[in-house]
Amino acid sequence: MGSVDEIVKDRAHDLEDTIFVAVGKNVEKSKTTLFWAVQSFAGKKIFVLHVHQPASAVSLTDRKLAVSKQKQEMIKAIAELEKKKMLDVLNQYCSILAHGGVKADKVWIEMENIEKGIVEIIAQYNIRWLVMGAAADKYYSKKLTGLKSKKAIFVCQHAPISCHIWFACKGCLIYTREGRNDKSEPEIASLLLLDCELRNEQPEYLRLGSFTQTCGYVDAVEGPHDLEGILGRFNYECAVHSSQSSNMVLRASKMMPLIDEEEKSKGKTTEKPYHELQQTIVDSKDSKKKAFEEAVKRWKEEDNAMEAKCKAKALEKLCIKEISLRKEMEEELARENEVVERTQNQCDEFIEEVQMVQEQKSVLESQLSECNCMVKDLEEKIISAVELLISFKAKRDAARIEYENAMREVIRLRKLAKMETVSFSKSEILEFSFMEINEATQEFDPSWKIGEGRYGIVYKGILRHVHVAIKMLPSYGSHTQLDFQNGVEILSRVRHPHLVTLIGTCPESRSLVYEYVRNGSLEDCLACKNKTMPLPWKARLRIATEICSALIFLHSKKPCIIHGNLKPSKILLDADYVSKLSGVGVTYLMPQGERLGTNIPISNRSNSNFMSVYADPEYLDTGTLTPESDVYSFGMILLRLLTGRPVSGLVKNVKCALEKENLKALLDCSSGDWPVEQAKMLAKLALRCCENYRMNRPDVASEILCVLETMRASCVDLASCLDSKELHRVPSHFICPIFQEVMKDPQIAADGFTYDAEAIRGWLKSGHNTSPMTNLKLEHCNLLPNHALHQAIQEWRRSW
Ligand SMILES: Nc1ncnc2c1ncn2[C@@H]1O[C@H](COP(=O)(O)OP(=O)(O)OP(=O)(O)O)[C@@H](O)[C@H]1O
């Protein structure tokens, strides 16, 4: 099949004689229109024109509605089939027309809009003659004079005016649109007359003059009576081919007027009767009609066969597709089944896991409930412990108040004691029997001996459940019992916080019973005896001040009490390292001749073993004790505290160091970093105390104590900030869990915790048999002293 361009080009020369017949998809309708054209324009070249709507346009709605790929493919396949079918139909048309001797060709164009396509082709190729359907066959009636088909109306309105268009329906001309062209009028008339002739079947057209109405130029044509003449100009030769082959061949050719030709050939004019001609025409028409009906029948059958064939092919294709789809579906199904199986397995695993988790959950829930019970118990215990603590705190507060009251009472009593100028009666000093002294010292067990001085041995002892130190004075025959008691009377008046208290006497054994001072002497401490920690400089300064205050107290007594044997071994330290001066007034209990130094010849005094290096040289020279003698000894003690060195030659060395501004080298580094200025001040004070001439020595009350207090105050200021810091540094294990204070007497209870003895005893006495810390029952109520901790606490205390 050639394109329109090719065909029209080839036929350009005879386009004038070419009739285009527009045929549609509706085969029936198109056939009648085609046959009308063939019949009407015998001898003319026929172009069967079909404007085909491509699948894209035809199936647009269907495609929109299409939901599946398969359906889309089916629609496409059907469109392809339709196209093919239409081409077959056109081919059939052409071949049938060819059989009938009609020159026919087909023109195939694909366009989305059919009517526009037709108009466009007319315009493009300057088509002069066109036949197309006016309406569907069903609309046909004898009265039908107008166009029904939308396509026909459109083409009629929009086709170029040069084109002459016949609109037919059911094999009848319905309407003609006149074309203005330069074709000779007679030729057009011939075409139109042929048309009119064919419309003889519908004489009403002619009769009613509708033809005249539709074909404007038919003015020239006369009424039906002229039909014969017109017909006479054409000769129809209709050949009906054998009906066996079911092929109807129409051959229409341009007829020459037969009568004239015969007349010419015969050379004579013979008139055929009109009725014969009429009969011939009628016969010819009958034959034509029959042939037409035959052809229509055959075409119908062929159409049906073709349609069935196409359907079968389509079905076959569909079937193949269906099979492949089915295969794909089966494969898909198998895959899906696998997935389902896997999912099922996973689901089973999940269920197992869920079961496990549920089991764990129930276990955890039971544990949780147990924990909750425990928490409840513990909460109750905590509440009871807190209550207990509160009650203890209340007790502690009450005890504190009691303690403070007692302290106030003590202070008041001390003040009273100070104010007392009257001598104490003998009854204020306890008197012990020898038996008691003997028992207290375990019969003077040497292991209970704690020291020995020039004036006798000192034993440790327990008298009436009190720890005491018993000094056994030597017995001097000339020294009567009365003298002893007079001496004791003097001593009994001497009570000071920094003097070792005389508790009682045993006149029988000439022994003096003192309070027991636990931590030994300053001498031992400076020598670090028993591997004790060195005494810090602050503690040394404090001790100096304390001893100074004791000297002032003694010297202020009336009559004045002079210690006369002041040295570090006479300064004792109690549990809190508070210093206490011992040996006060012992010289008063000695016979004059036995007193220190007085029985030694002056020439030998300086070399005597009995002579203390701390002794006042003037006293040694003169044998007269004065308060300044104590000042000298005190000065020597100060030098010892500063340097920690033996006092022999110390005065000279310190002097030298001060002159050389090199005192720091002499200071006892084990006591920490002395503040240099304070150390200098103290050294200078000490040197003044150690002046050989007593007149050059400072007054103990007005000068020495002032200097010491000032120094101490500045040191306290210095230390206070340290104190506040250090307070926070109290080791937590020094604190009693009950009293929340530093323990005085740490004791280990059965629960393994250490408490202050007072606190834990109070706890046990109040009826508790449980641990204050764990609230568990105590196995026993025994307490064990925590010596190590006690020692540590003491060390810690001593450093302040
Ligand atoms: N109340 C006391 N508590 C504890 N220990 C004491 C007490 N009194 C004395 N001592 C110890 O006994 C030792 C002997 O003391 P004592 O006063 O008899 O002699 P001294 O001072 O060593 O020498 P002297 O008196 O001959 O100059 C002291 O160094 C001291 O350790």
UniProtKB/TrEMBL annotation:
UniProt xrefs under Pfam families: PK_Tyr_Ser-Thr, U-box
Coiled coil residues, start to end: 282-416
Bilayer-spanning residue ranges: none
Swiss-Prot/TrEMBL catalytic activity: S-ubiquitinyl-[E2 ubiquitin-conjugating enzyme]-L-cysteine + [acceptor protein]-L-lysine = [E2 ubiquitin-conjugating enzyme]-L-cysteine + N(6)-ubiquitinyl-[acceptor protein]-L-lysine
Segments forming domain U-box: 729-800
Keywords: ATP-binding, Coiled coil, Nucleotide-binding, Transferase, Ubl conjugation pathway
Gene3D superfamilies listed in its UniProt record: HUPs, Phosphorylase Kinase, domain 1, Transferase(Phosphotransferase) domain 1, Zinc/RING finger domain, C3HC4 (zinc finger)
GO MF annotation, one: ubiquitin protein ligase activity
One of the GO BP terms on file: protein ubiquitination
Role of this protein: Functions as an E3 ubiquitin ligase.
Protein name in the entry: RING-type E3 ubiquitin transferase
Taxonomy of the source species: Eukaryota, Viridiplantae, Streptophyta, Embryophyta, Tracheophyta
